[in-house]
Specification:
Blueprint lengths: L2 E5 L9 E3 L2 E3 L13 H10 L2 E8 L10 H15 L3 E5 L15 H10 L7 E4 L2 H10 L2 E5 L13 E3 L2 H10 L1
Parallel strand pairs: 1-4, 1-6, 4-5, 6-7, 7-8
Antiparallel strand pairs: 2-3
Amino acid sequence: MNKAVFLDRDGVINKAFVKNGLPFSPPSFSELKILPGVKESIRLLSKMNFVSLIVTNQPNVSRGKIEKKTVIKMNDYLKDEIKLDDIFVCYHDDHDNCKCRKPKPGLLLDASKKWNIDLKNSYIVGDRWRDMEAGKSAGCKTIFIDYNYNEEKPRNPDFITDSLLHAVHLIEKI
């Protein structure tokens, strides 16, 4: 079985747009900016034999705020640019009551089937409570990147840090 690091996209891999203390996805491809240290982080995870997988909620597609093809273009760019293994996306909104939208673990479970992932020896890195809940529900260790958003904090993440690179250094030591 493989071990993985599941990564939220916006705020972990690329810059999130913060409005009124809340994070949002980039509204267009031209505004997609990879955060410092991300390429090095993915390279280090690969050296440690982790599969690097993005698991991302993109509800603005179902809300009509961005086209699905734009999100796909962003994801393809990120996958190629930083050498990710795969990307799993939920395009639903809360009211759709799907199984894939975080905090439900559906994206992680789908990824674990495709990539033969040992969830107990895997991690999720995210910047919102939804990421931590999805990871816990799937049986992963959780690493919360705390940007002090004006929203509910996760309950008892396994680790708290301030960047993906610092999260990867934590994983190296475990």
